[in-house]
Amino acid sequence: MPRFGEDLRNVTLIAGSAVVGLAATAALFASGSARVHEIRVAPVVEVRVDRAAPIVVEAPTVITAGAERLYGEVVTTSGAVLEGFLRWDRNEGSWADLLDASKMDGRSTQTGVRFGHIDRIEVLGSGHAAVVMRSGDVAELAGHSTDLGSGMRRLVVESLDGASHELSWSDLDEVRFRSAPEDARTTEQRLHGRVTTRDGHEFVGFVTWDIDEIHGSDVLDGEVDGRDVAVPFGAIASIERRGPSGAEVILHDGETLHMLGTNDVDSRNSGITVSDPGLGQVRVEWRDFDSVDFFPADDLPHRGTFEHTGRVEGTVVGSSGDSWRGAITWDLDEAFGWEILNGDLDDAEFFVEFGQVRSIERVESGSRVTLRDGRTFLLTDSQDVDRGNRGVRVEGEDGERVVRWADFRELRIDT
């Protein structure tokens, strides 16, 4: 049987065969012959229909100074020095974003530090680095996710002349952070907005979508009525979850798109994070996410927003009413203002910077954490904030004391 290479030719041949068949049948009946004739049905040839053209959405180009964006010098193993705006491991791009890591203390304790506190990162091997803080403190950290080590997805250096350089971990010798020059300009803006959870909690700050998209030029992929669509985040006003497998996307021009079909808008989404300068970071899983509204920040945090943070100092009050003042080590582990307090608030995972904490009070189910700006959260389900806590060490003028969690009432941190 012949093979047909083009759809149009297939359709033409099928139609022609049908006409010939009808004519032959009519002739047979017209002749009045009694002979039995074998009629063969022509095979059906499948006609391929091309997928509809993708929907194209564009976003306006905005030029800013990029004060909120990471900036610095990257020294490579070959000795080259590259300078410009930085995108770290795809999902970190602002001074408020969190570098995830583990302490090299024999217990692989999870930790983190916001980029605004880092002076430089010195690569020590395929899986760890020395992180030098602006305060002068040095922490030897290992990769906990993909932020440090050979698993890093890449470091992108966007030079001021417009060139872009992509580097892997093995290319790096040292990264030195600093503020961008006053005359620097960029067309990339860190996504900013308000994330609302299904429990009704709201968090405002720099948004990372699917632990991947962070800039206005990054795209939200999906399908609309069977057509592929890639929408730049800079064109999006809001995204609202529509069940486990879809989302309603409203553009700044008022158009509404009902998107589905990719991990950007269904249960395969890796999560949404909010980097809040006055808190730390909050992470929300897709199943707990309700909506996000994008809008510019009223006051962009820059590198100078993040003060040099040394030891945590304060007063520990015991359940007996006794109190002890001095340098604090929380959970026998966190001792510096740049370190992180972990806990959950209903459907949101918190990474609270100690430098933003005013007080921590033990309650029956966890801890009540009050921030310097007055916000209060009841955090649970973490060793940092419940009975798994190993104790609070106080180093004061009268010596050192460890207050057990069972004997702990409150920590008041010096301002």
What key attributes describe this structure?
6% helix; 10-stranded antiparallel β-sheet; mainly beta; single chain; 31 strands; 1 helix; 415 residues; globular
Report on the architecture of this protein.
With 415 residues, the protein is mainly β. It folds into four domains: 7-50, no CATH class; 71-177, no CATH class; 192-303, no CATH class; 309-413, no CATH class. 6% of the residues lie in helices and 42% in strands. The chain contains one helix and 31 strands. It has one helix at residues 7-31, and strands at residues 55-56, 71-76, 81-88, 98-103, 110-114, 118-123, 128-133, 138-142, 155-158, 164-167, 172-177, 192-197, 202-209, 219-224, 227-232, 236-241, 247-251, 256-259, 272-276, 280-284, 289-294, 313-318, 323-330, 340-345, 348-353, 357-363, 366-371, 376-379, 392-396, 399-403, 408-413. It has a ten-stranded antiparallel sheet with strand order 5-4-8-7-6-11-2-3-9-10, with no helix packed on it. The chain has a ten-stranded antiparallel sheet with strand order 18-17-16-21-12-13-19-20-25-24, with no helix packed on it. The model is unreliable at 1-50 (pLDDT under 50).
Concise description?
With 415 residues, the protein is mainly beta. The protein has one helix at 7-31, and strands at residues 55-56, 71-76, 81-88, 98-103, 110-114, 118-123, 128-133, 138-142, 155-158, 164-167, 172-177, 192-197, 202-209, 219-224, 227-232, 236-241, 247-251, 256-259, 272-276, 280-284, 289-294, 313-318, 323-330, 340-345, 348-353, 357-363, 366-371, 376-379, 392-396, 399-403, 408-413.
